[in-house]
Every structure is written in C-alpha cells, then in structure tokens.
C-alpha cells in the first residue's frame, strides 16, 4: 500500500505519537510518519521519534514575532516533506490562520472528551465535577475555532462511581490510542 507522508505535532510525552507510529508499521496502513514537529525541544516524545529514525523539527516560539511569523517558518520547513496530513497529538499551541489555510482539511487533532462537550483544557476534571457518567475522546478536523472542527471519529468511555481524574485520563487515553490511527486511516483513504 502506498504510504502517504504524515506530520505529527507534539508538545509533551507523545503517547499518541507512539500509537500512530505503531500503526504506520502495519503493511496495510496508508500513512507513514515523515516528520515530528514540536514547539518544545524537551518534549519526551521527541526521544521516541529519534529512536525510531523519524525526522524531528523543533522551533522555540519565543524567538518569533508572533504566531503568524512562527507558523510561516513551520510551513517553510514542512514544505519539502509534501505532507498529506498533519496530526496534532498533544500540541499545546493554537494554530494560526496561515497554517490552517496552507493545509485545508489536512490537519486533524485528538481531544479527550466527547466534543462538542468539554472543549479546552482539564476536561477530565470538569467531567468528574459535573458528575457525568459518560465521556470519551474525539478525533476532529482543525479549523479556526478551538476544538470546533468537523468530527471524524469518537469513542465513548464509561465513568465509574469511584473514578478519579487520573484513572479517567488513563481509561480515555487507552481509547485515544485506538481511535487516532483508525481516524487517520479513514482520512487518508477518503
Ligand atoms: C491527549 O490526552 C490528547 O487527547 C490531548 O493531549 C494529550 C496528549 O497526550 N490533546 P500524549 O502526548 O499523546 O501522550
């Protein structure tokens, strides 16, 4: 199967990156991680990328004038890689219009809630505080609205009575690792 080049953007530990790389190793998976980008040169996920011989680019935001300027440089550096898809996986910066317009319908994200509920940060804490019984995770297209683009795939997770933020995060993350590769397959074969 022809493997289309994917870029993965991370800021931290990179367990979703790991699940994507693992899926890409399957013969019949339509993508291959061509590049990992991070705004944080200390992101733990970079170690994993390097170990797996994946190209890594890091850029320090504080060296740029503003988000447009920063994303312009990302676009310039990504261009030679001819990416068919960009997967945000725990990337903690909001993308500017510039990069979203450069890759129309080619940027996706994973979020640890059942969108459109619980956009933004600290989703598990808010879900528990609100005594929800069901939560989950969502893979969606990225547009200008935070966590607001079209939904590609969701998976529900049941919340137990004695659930803590930590136990819930663990349960949801396990499902994230299953649905992100599945969503990538869907998008790349659409
Ligand atoms: C995940 O929970 C993801 O849903 C959110 O950030 C976290 C990243 O975790 N956007 P990891 O870096 O992939 O381990």
Structure characterization notes:
The protein has 190 residues and is α/β, with parallel strands linked by helices. It has one domain (4-188): Formyl transferase, N-terminal domain (Rossmann fold, 3-Layer(aba) Sandwich), CATH 3.40.50.170. Helix content is 35%, strand content 23%. The protein contains six helices and seven strands, in the order E-H-E-H-E-H-E-H-E-H-E-E-H. It has helices at residues 15-24, 44-51, 67-78, 97-102, 123-129, 165-188; strands at 4-10, 31-38, 55-58, 85-88, 107-111, 134-141, 151-158. It has a seven-stranded mixed beta sheet with strand order 3-2-1-4-5-6-7, covered by helices on one side. Strand 2 (31-38), helix 2 (44-51) and strand 3 form a beta-alpha-beta unit. It starts with a strand and ends with a helix. The mean pLDDT is 97. The site of 5-O-phosphono-beta-D-ribofuranosylamine has 14 residues, from helix 1, strand 5 and helix 6. Residues 10, 12-16, 45, 89-90, 110-112, 173, 176 line the site of 5-O-phosphono-beta-D-ribofuranosylamine.
């Amino acid at each position: 199967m022809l493997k289309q080049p994917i870029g993965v953007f991370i800021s931290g530990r990179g367990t979703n990156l790991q699940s994507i790389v693992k899926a890409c190793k399957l013969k019949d998976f339509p993508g291959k991680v061509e590049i990992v980008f991070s705004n944080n040169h200390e992101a733990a996920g970079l170690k994993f990328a390097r170990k797996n011989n994946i190209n890594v680019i890091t850029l320090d935001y504080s060296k740029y004038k503003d988000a447009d300027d920063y994303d312009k440089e990302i676009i310039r550096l990504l261009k030679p890689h001819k990416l068919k898809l960009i997967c945000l996986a725990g990337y903690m910066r909001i993308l500017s219009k510039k990069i979203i317009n450069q890759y129309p319908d080619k940027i996706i994200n994973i979020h640890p809630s059942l969108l459109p509920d619980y956009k933004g940060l600290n989703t598990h804490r808010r879900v528990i505080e609100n005594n929800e019984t069901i939560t989950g995770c969502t893979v969606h297209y990225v547009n200008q609205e935070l966590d607001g683009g079209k939904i590609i795939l969701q998976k529900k997770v049941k919340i137990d009575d004695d659930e803590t933020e930590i136990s819930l995060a663990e349960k949801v993350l396990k499902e994230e690792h299953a649905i992100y590769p599945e969503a990538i397959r869907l998008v790349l074969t659409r």
